[in-house]
Amino acid sequence: MGSFSFLKASLNEAESLFAKPVNNFLRESPKIALLGDNSILAVSPPSSINTQVLGAIIGGGEMELDGGNNVFEYIVQEGESVYSIAEKYNISADTILWANELSSKTVIKPGQKLVILPVSGVLYHVKSGDTLSEIAETFKGKVDEIVEFNDLSDEADIFVGDILIIPEGKMPAKKTTYVASRMPIGSSYFICPHTSCYITQGLHWYNAIDFGGKCGDPIIAAAAGIVQRVSYGWNGGAGNYVRILHPNGVVTMYGHLQAALVKSGQQVSQGEIIALMGGKPGMAGSGISTGCHVHFDVRGSRNPFAK
Hints:
Blueprint: E1 31-35, E2 39-43, E3 72-75, H1 82-88, H2 93-99, E4 113-116, E5 121-125, H3 132-138, H4 143-149, E6 163-167, E7 199-204, E8 208-212, E9 218-220, E10 225-231, E11 241-245, E12 251-255, E13 257-260, E14 267-268, E15 273-277, E16 293-299
Antiparallel strand pairs: 1-2, 3-4, 5-6, 7-8, 8-16, 9-15, 10-11, 10-14, 11-12, 12-16, 13-15
């Protein structure tokens, strides 16, 4: 996997890992979390910075979206077309085509899943070195509207792996340049984030697999990397989550956590405990969830646990 020497750099020296330097964190009062069935520990979570759109899923009872602007998966019904679905949700047909990497000649079929945005525009995956002003210029959007729609603190509040909605944005002619890249990785690069590796829900938005277990079970890093962000709260239904940037540029996200045991900028090793499983309805930080599990999504490569 190459050298990990850069992971030893200070957070300030590792700014290239992010689309911008990490915001400062404030400490809150410690929370008590269960570790397994018979141990407790005090967790002092960092205050969360404003978060970006993560996406949403319907049918499984979960919403994985920051900011309250729902992106969701739609199941095509008999007799429907891209244009009829666009009319139903009051968005442009191009918005559906762009979000699903379809052409105007594509014929959709009943049972097919389509990503539906809450507004006409473009879905964009933030890459290393991106700035919001450049993104806005490329997709004919407005910086202030992107900031507001994605619930950002300011135009510098973007990270590699974030998924942004550009309201009323237009896809450039050479759109293939801007499609989210899928880096090929070895089948053993990622390990299951939970020891049981028990899948409770297959592939869903965004490129995610759910692993079930008991609330309080340890969640482990699927691969070595640097903790990119830690967010406590509702987060549009994603609940508490941790995101890790790996040396190959791929980002993994772990949602519906009872508590995070790491902080932004921290180096973690593969298999290191980074959080405790949450997801029990009514539990703080569960977001929208029907039971104890971890939502594990992969940004920048295929999810190796998808069947």
